[in-house]
Design brief:
Blueprint lengths: L2 E4 L1 E2 L4 E8 L17 H24 L7 H15 L1 H4 L1 H9 L3 H17 L4 H5 L1 H15 L7 H12 L3 E6 L4 H8 L5 E6 L7 H8 L4 E3 L4 H4 L5 E5 L4 E4 L3 H22 L15 E6 L5 H6 L5 E5 L13 H14 L4 E5 L11 H6 L23 H6 L1 H14 L4 E6 L5 H20 L10 E5 L2 H5 L2 H6 L3 E3 L1 H9 L17 H16 L4 E3 L10 H6 L4 E4 L1 H13 L2 H11 L5 H18 L19
Parallel strand pairs: 3-4, 4-5, 5-6, 9-10, 9-16, 10-11, 11-12, 12-13, 13-14, 14-15
Antiparallel strand pairs: 1-8, 2-6, 3-7, 7-8
Helix pairs in contact: 1-2, 1-4, 1-7, 2-7, 4-5, 5-7, 9-10, 14-17, 17-18
The chain binds phosphoenolpyruvate (PEP) and magnesium ion (MG).
The site of magnesium ion has 5 residues, from helix 21.
């Protein structure tokens, strides 16, 4: 039967994989520049690490039992060959010398280069060898970090697992958003996450979702209950982990995974279809992205645009802040890829759980505490974050604004400012945009002079005092993740209070309703870009409140599109009216579920085309 653990499911779906318990040190691949005088030292570190891994592999080969399958030796020989290939052992030294970067950084750059070459080979066997390259590099990185080699039993088991098509479920006490960024490059080996801490809308979990990985947070004592290499079923839909499931249960879950796969294939048929409700009201379904490459997922899901580009992830996990040109390239890439569809680029929302590396903070003149490299902030979620951070560091802000404005020459770009609460902040933000425009004019650089500037409504003060927002800004985007956290006074990344994180709290719903109504009446496009927008259980309520723009993780988009085909905007409006009179979130949830049930029974499997061509919703931005 297997042991069951519970927590809160984050991304949807079920996955089966082998547990890998994460130690924090495994996550930290430091990247920094070195002085010319330190190059020799850095190259020596590389040489030493390579020699140690060479010896490690030789030792392993010598210890292979006589009756071991021939593949074991072949596998070790392959790793030795990879290690000795000049692409891997010589090129990083050259990178250290030419780019003045540390050994780890050079090695990871070269790793990506080599993997790209492997992945371009038109042969399945060779293509899949990029995984071996990664494993060899991991050994070297571990040696560079001064760590002991991986326990060989584990290494072998993971390798065997990978060969049987099994993937890894990472089990950690807690993960920072920066940690998850590392896993983006993990080539699909990571199948899911389990953490003991963390809330479902923490940025860590938003990233997990953007990777399409089922994850469960708040699983108390997961690392005591789960052992390295245990087989796990992660049922993110039910917020359940099953440790070492029996055969029968495993078979049941495999069938469910298959059924979910088929449902996803069905959904993909909706990609090219217009987004609209059953009664023909056009809806914009937009994508939230975290890195420029995510634009592929947005296009793949048939998004009507990018509703939120969380740019801060470009600034994290690095010691030097990205230059204006580097930022421009990233933003322009997304703008070009969307081919004229709107791209809403949010200015830097750094702070709280999204921190810059210590050297990057120091380059801004921020104090760091010497110990773990983090500045001491008594209450980071209420501290120097987002627009407050940008106004405190004008050069940082102006550089980003210039880069965004320049990217507007490549597509339809809009600027979104996070965490606004005071009219003075709106005015200052707009002044900065004006100054950035002037600077570009002086430099004679191209940009679209009509770029719209909008604001996030995610601080209660903003939602309660919308006047200055609708007067000064061109569009509004409801950041419900933070709005809920600040309205209910609970830290969205704290598992201890996650049970209080209630999107359906009437106070939250009132502010959302008020923002949609006020913004729409003033002729401003209003969207929701928090996690509520992609929640199938809530979409009817938001539609009924008058929302016509939903921005979400691309993986959720087609499911929401399908649900909208079943919904009638007038029925939804009546439902929202009834719900506005309820004060208990559980009654609200019941009302939403009851509204869904009868419709689901009668719902057509495939959407019907509207009789008349759908009109686009009125826009100002
Ligand atoms: C939000 O707060 O709802 C939002 C979209 O922004 P983030 O999750 O990045 O804080
Ligand atoms: Mg937010």
């Amino acid at each position: 039967m297997g042991k069951q653990l519970v927590g809160q499911g984050v991304a949807r779906g079920i996955v089966i994989g082998r547990a890998h318990l994460l130690a924090p040190s495994e996550l930290d691949i430091r990247q920094y520049h070195v002085q010319r005088a330190d190059v020799l030292h850095e190259v020596a570190r590389l040489n030493n690490a390579f020699s140690l891994v060479r010896a490690e592999l030789e030792q392993l080969r010598a210890n292979v039992a006589d009756d071991a399958p021939a593949e074991v030796r072949a596998f070790l020989d392959l790793h030795r060959m990879i290690l000795d290939d000049s692409l891997l052992c010589d090129a990083p030294r050259d990178l250290v010398r030419s780019r003045l970067i540390n050994a780890e950084w050079a090695l990871t750059i070269q790793l990506e280069e080599v993997c790209l070459q492997f992945e371009a080979i038109d042969d399945d066997y060779f293509r899949s060898r990029s995984q071996d390259v990664r494993q060899v590099v991991e050994r070297v990185l571990r040696r560079l970090a001064g760590g002991r080699p991986a326990p060989e039993a584990l290494g072998r088991r993971l390798q065997e697992g990978a060969r049987e098509g099994e993937r890894l479920v990472l089990v950690a006490h807690d993960l920072a958003p920066a940690d998850v960024l590392h896993f983006r490059e993990d080539g699909g080996r990571v199948a899911g996450f389990i953490t003991e801490l963390g809330g479902p809308t923490s940025h860590t979990m938003i990233l997990a979702r953007s990777l399409g990985l089922p994850a469960i947070v708040g699983v108390a004592d997961a690392r005591d209950a789960i052992e390295e290499g245990d087989l796990l079923v992660v049922d993110s839909d039910a917020g359940r982990v099953i440790v070492q499931p029996g055969e029968e249960l495993l078979a049941e879950y495999r069938t469910r995974i298959l059924v979910q796969g088929q449902a996803r294939t069905e959904l993909r048929k909706l990609r090219g279809k217009l987004s609209r409700t059953k009664d023909g009201i056009p809806i914009e379904l937009l994508a939230n992205i975290e890195m420029p490459d995510d634009v592929r997922d947005a296009l793949d899901a048939g998004a009507d645009g990018v509703g939120l580009f969380r740019t801060e992830f470009l600034f994290m996990n690095r010691d030097e802040l990205p230059s204006e040109d580097e930022q421009y390239e990233s933003y322009a890439k997304v703008a070009r890829a969307m081919k004229g569809k709107p791209v809403v680029i949010r200015t830097l929302d750094i702070g709280a759980d999204k921190v810059l590396n210590a050297p990057a903070r120091q380059s801004l003149g921020l104090s760091v505490d010497g110990g773990d490299g983090l500045a001491v902030e008594p209450n980071p979620a209420l501290g120097l974050r987002a627009i407050r951070y940008c106004l405190a560091y004008p050069d940082l802000f102006l550089t980003q604004l210039r880069a965004i404005l320049r990217a507007s020459s490549q597509g339809t770009v809009r600027i979104l400012v996070p965490m606004l609460a005071h009219v003075g902040e709106i005015d200052k933000a707009l002044q900065f945009v004006g100054r950035a425009r002037e600077q570009l004019k002086e430099r004679r650089q191209k940009f679209d002079a009509r770029v719209a500037v909008g604001g996030m409504i995610e601080v209660p003060a903003a939602a309660l005092n919308l006047g200055p927002f609708v007067e000064r800004l061109k569009f509004l985007s409801l950041g419900t993740n933070d709005l809920i956290q600040y309205v209910l006074a609970i830290d969205r990344s704290d598992s201890a209070v996650a049970y209080l994180y209630e999107p359906l709290h009437p106070a939250v719903l009132q502010l959302i309703q008020q923002t949609i109504r006020t913004g729409t009446r003033a002729g401003l496009p209003v969207s929701v870009c928090g996690e509520m927008a992609g929640d199938l259980a809530i979409v009817e309520l938001l539609l009924g409140m008058g929302l016509r723009r939903f921005s979400m993780n691309p993986a959720q988009l087609l499911g929401i599109k399908q649900r909208l085909y079943e919904l009638d905007s007038k029925v939804a409006a009546r439902l929202a009216g009834r719900i506005a009179r309820l004060h208990d979130p559980s009654l609200i949830r019941d009302a939403l579920a009851r509204a869904t049930l009868p419709r689901r029974r009668q719902a057509p499997a495939a959407p019907r085309r509207p009789k008349a061509p759908a009109k686009s919703p009125a826009r100002r931005a």
